[in-house]
Specification:
Conserved Hypothetical Protein Ylqf, Chain: A, domain 2, Rossmann fold, flat, alpha/beta, binds guanosine-5',3'-tetraphosphate, single chain, 6-stranded mixed sheet
Length: 318
């Protein structure tokens, strides 16, 4: 796995969320519409004591609309959960946010029992952009480095509706390799943490299977039967003039082109996972986790047995 993932300290975020949660009615989790499953933080449900959840599927302008519909249906079918899609072009998203949150906590509202909503999301998912739109400010982005403290913000979206933004960062937990690749492709992980060529190959492999027409339209390469991701990356590099002096393709450059064009959606509106696929990856990842745990427990038992077998030194005569 090429992703050297050092998510930094999350204790600040955990502490802030668990302190604030006592007074929270609804938790908004911002997700990236191109990878809703991988951009979620699985720890959040536990941290937020399973409060009603509003999933905001953000950056929907970059994602495949048919798949966004699948994700919306998936979340809307879960208990205590609502989902809406959003993008930065929506200049007044407050009304839809407020309405969806109120549906989740119908007993809250009015000056005596104002709605208190917590907003969370992994880095780069668009939280600052959304908060700036909601507040009508163009505040500088802070707190996007591990360890940077940012004071809690309380934003009033209506007389009886408060939105809380906690300090610190909520990092994704990479349970499955595929999530790591998708997070890297989306820009959620710093570029020094992964190998661009490997991420681009993984991306191309998925696009070959799911979006071949977009690849063909963008890169004008022939997608012959059985073409591999390596061959495709090479063909893209050649087409784009990413060639080294002796005629060899500069695969690093070609990978950067592919990743950049995916992020900017010049390749088209693409979503890297469906709810069904993500559920399969998750199940496989959890199985690996469980096996690892069994192995660890086994090693621990063996160690204990060995310790028991070590004869005790004779007691010194008193
Ligand atoms: P964060 O606070 O959650 O870390 O994210 P932030 O708002 O800073 O947004 C990260 C990047 O995503 C920004 O791009 C922002 O403009 C972009 N973005 C946010 N919401 C949307 C959306 O709905 N649609 C699209 N297309 N883009 C959105 P940036 O400043 O150019 O940063 P970067 O792309 O160089 O990381």
């Amino acid at each position: 796995m090429a992703i050297q993932w050092f998510p930094g300290h999350m204790h600040l975020t955990k502490k802030a969320i668990s302190e604030r949660i006592k007074e929270i009615d609804v938790v908004i989790e911002l997700l990236d519409a191109r990878l809703p499953g991988s951009s979620a933080n699985p720890m959040l449900a536990e941290l937020t004591s399973r409060r009603p959840a509003l999933k905001v599927i953000n950056k929907q302008d970059l994602a495949d609309p048919a798949r966004t519909a699948l994700w919306l249906a998936h979340y809307n079918a879960l208990p205590n959960t609502r989902a809406i899609e959003l993008d930065a072009s929506e200049t007044a998203p407050a009304r839809r946010l407020i309405q969806a949150a109120r549906e989740l906590a119908p007993l809250r509202g009015g000056m005596v029992k104002p709605m208190r909503v917590l907003i969370c999301g992994i880095p780069n998912v668009g939280k600052s952009t959304l908060i700036n739109t909601l507040t009508g400010k163009r505040a500088a982005k802070t707190g996007d480095e591990a360890g940077i403290t940012k004071a809690e913000q309380r934003i009033s979206l209506a007389d009886d509706f408060y939105l809380y933004d906690t300090p610190g960062m909520l990092w994704p937990r990479i349970i499955v390799a595929k999530s790591g690749y998708n997070l890297a492709a989306s820009g959620a992980i710093g570029r020094n943490a992964f190998d661009e060529e490997e991420v681009a190959l993984e991306l191309l492999d998925y696009l070959l299977q799911n979006y071949p027409a977009l690849l063909q339209a963008r890169y004008k390469v022939e997608l012959t039967d059985g073409i591999t991701d390596e061959q495709l990356l090479e063909a893209i590099g050649r087409k784009r003039g990413a060639v080294l002096p002796r005629g060899k393709v500069n695969l690093q450059k070609a990978a950067e082109i592919v990743i950049h064009e995916f992020r900017a959606a010049t390749l088209g509106r693409i979503t890297l996972e469906t709810p069904e696929e993500f559920a399969q990856w998750l199940a496989a990842g959890q199985l690996i986790d469980a096996e690892r745990q069994v192995k660890k427990d086994g090693l621990e038992n063996q160690r204990l047995i060995r310790l028991k077998k070590i004869p005790r030194p004779p007691r010194a005569a008193s």
